[in-house]
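Lecture notes, unit on protein representations.

Consider one protein chain, 397 amino acids long.
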Amino acid sequence: MINSRAKPITLSASYKGFSLVELLIAMAVGLILLTGMIAVFSGNKRSAELNSAMSNIQENARFALTTLSKDIRMAGYQGCLDSRRGRMTVKAANAPVPQDGFKDNGEPKFNFNASLVTGAVVVDADNWSPDIPGGFDPPEDNPSIPGTDVLTVQYGDRVRSTLPGPIVTADVPSLDGPIVTTEDLGIRVGDLALIASCDNVDLIEVTGVANDGDGQSLAHAAPRNVDGNLSARYGLPNDIAHTRVMRFRSHVYYIGDTGLVNESGDSIRALYQQSYPYNDPNNPPAELAQGVENMRISFGLRHNNTLRYVSANDPVFNPEDVESVQIGLIMTSYERIAEQDDTNVYVIAGQPIPPAANADSGLSHAQDRRYRLVFNTTVKVRNRRDDRVFFSQTDDP
């Protein structure tokens, strides 16, 4: 039987809810904590982005400077004959070495000293001043940035080979016989190569390659070469110990537009290397390092025992007198990660680069929020010895 007189259930004080004031206080405390967490997260995110950007900048700058410095130190290497004490004989008909008159027999004479380390200033994407030796045309893809500088370096490769004996034709020492190496240098038809002793150096274009034991047999026939003959009989007993064969390297370094843009629409630049043969669709420029926004090059010329640094388009610039090279790079982050606009004036290779609101050349840098670092170094051209220094015969680069 149901008891209709049961007492109604009542709530005790322990079951009562928050008051409006308590709820507002709790919400305010929670909001403060959430704001702090967001600030910490945002700070950590910005710090991570900055650390990542600086790491990428330093890594790319280190690679770029190492590559450029290594090439400058090799500039002019042609075996044990110093470039100031013996003139290279250029037999290759299309070598990137400037012509310097004619010999008594009417054969063209070339001046390797005028191209082993030189440069240019980009006036506009289609005009570099002075011209690059060897008929180089500024690239249409990844065009160069006006106001930036260009560096050109030429040398014999570190990888070299000896000769097993004299160069011969029908077992008789000759000028037109194939150059036989003791090691495989990986040289292909169309490559430029050097054969060098302590008395003579010839630059040839290889017109034929055949395997010869562990080495190669390199032909150097006309018309890709002036006459198919070398300037000397290499490999004879009196000079074979110092005779070397090596690939000839000619590199042009410049700053170009990659065609990429970041989230803010900023163009991304990079350091490019164009190797010989130039103007060959099968040999496009190689991108070496992204984020290289600007490059300036100053060449050290000695006058009255004083070293003066000038740019390649300076009226006093003479590539034959270059003793050292200053390299300056401005590296930039991919995205805009700085808290304020960049209003700094940077100095690279002794040249100031001011900020500008709409910088579209290397004469200034964009006044945006990308992070920038400057890198400078000076490299001596060590294969161009001072005439006052005693010269000992060696084939070490």
